[in-house]
């Protein structure tokens, strides 16, 4: 695999660990280019027996994935192309999470910065996630945009944290710090920022060095849950809210107010709460 093949990722592999660095300035928005790159690299890795662990991180220390690109509705041709090649019964956003959840390798997120919306769904789709206490944050921001999570978030959250906390996360649309996320079970562990790299690297190397067959046996024993019906319900809910004029007004207003710029994304919740309904 060569980095020349991807416009939004940096990919390397050593000693059984593939490292995928998300690199889509200015805030790592999850747009069609990143979705295509992720699908290409993860599909290729599925059949690579030399890779046993995949670690995702970000080239931007502030933002892991800000959220789905708020301009994505303007790329209908590309979205339709991605939808045509997605598995049945999932939308293009859910397809990314499902691809991550069903990788044969162990998938790990190293979360140094913020992950909202589709970024938070990405984190919850991985097998494990570790966050920096001082700087990591997770949030399902969609309600402030007049929509609901549409990339698996409702299903992944309920599975991770329970229905009551999933409702809290989605309906408050707050940004949750790493310690709270860890206490809820949203991520595995919150660590001091200066220990995050070393800890995740050690976990990845140790898992990759396990005897042949162990990873496969464990993942076979603990399969990814089947969310088929739930993902269909989520897609219906997302489609019905995304098409509302109020959602389009809020998304457009958010962009005009500075969403998808580093300054605006630092307090996106406050920015979106200030957009007139």
Automatic annotation (TrEMBL):
One Pfam short name: ECH_1
Family annotation (InterPro entries): ClpP/crotonase-like_dom_sf, Enoyl-CoA_hydra/iso
CDD domains, per database record: crotonase-like (cd06558)
Record protein name field: Enoyl-CoA hydratase/isomerase family protein
Organism: Streptomyces tendae
């Amino acid at each position: 695999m060569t980095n020349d093949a991807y416009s939004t990722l940096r990919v390397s592999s050593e000693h059984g660990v593939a490292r995928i660095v998300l690199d889509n300035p200015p805030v790592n928005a999850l747009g069609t280019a990143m979705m295509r790159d992720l699908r290409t690299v993860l599909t290729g890795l599925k059949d690579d027996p030399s890779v046993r662990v995949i670690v995702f991180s970000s080239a931007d220390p502030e933002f892991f994935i800000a959220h789905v690109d708020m301009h994505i509705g303007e790329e209908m041709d590309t979205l339709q192309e991605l939808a045509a090649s997605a598995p049945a019964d999932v939308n293009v956003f859910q397809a990314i999470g499902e691809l991550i959840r069903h990788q044969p390798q162990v998938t790990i997120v190293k979360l140094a910065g913020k992950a909202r919306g589709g970024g938070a769904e990405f984190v919850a789709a991985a097998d494990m996630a570790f966050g920096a206490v001082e700087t990591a944050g997770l949030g399902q921001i969609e309600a402030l945009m007049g929509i609901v999570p549409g990339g698996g978030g409702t299903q992944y959250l309920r599975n991770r944290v329970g229905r009551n906390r999933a409702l809290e996360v989605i309906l408050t649309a707050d940004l949750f710090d790493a310690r709270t996320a860890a206490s809820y079970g949203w991520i595995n562990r919150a660590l001091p920022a200066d220990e995050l790299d070393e800890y995740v690297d050690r976990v990845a190397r140790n898992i990759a060095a396990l005897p042949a067959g162990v990873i496969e046996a464990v993942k076979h024993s603990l399969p990814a849950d089947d969310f088929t019906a739930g993902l269909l319900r989520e897609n219906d809910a997302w489609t019905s809210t995304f098409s509302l004029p109020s959602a389009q007004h809020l998304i457009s207003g958010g962009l005009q107010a500075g969403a998808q710029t580093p300054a605006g994304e630092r307090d996106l919740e406050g920015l979106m709460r200030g957009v007139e309904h």
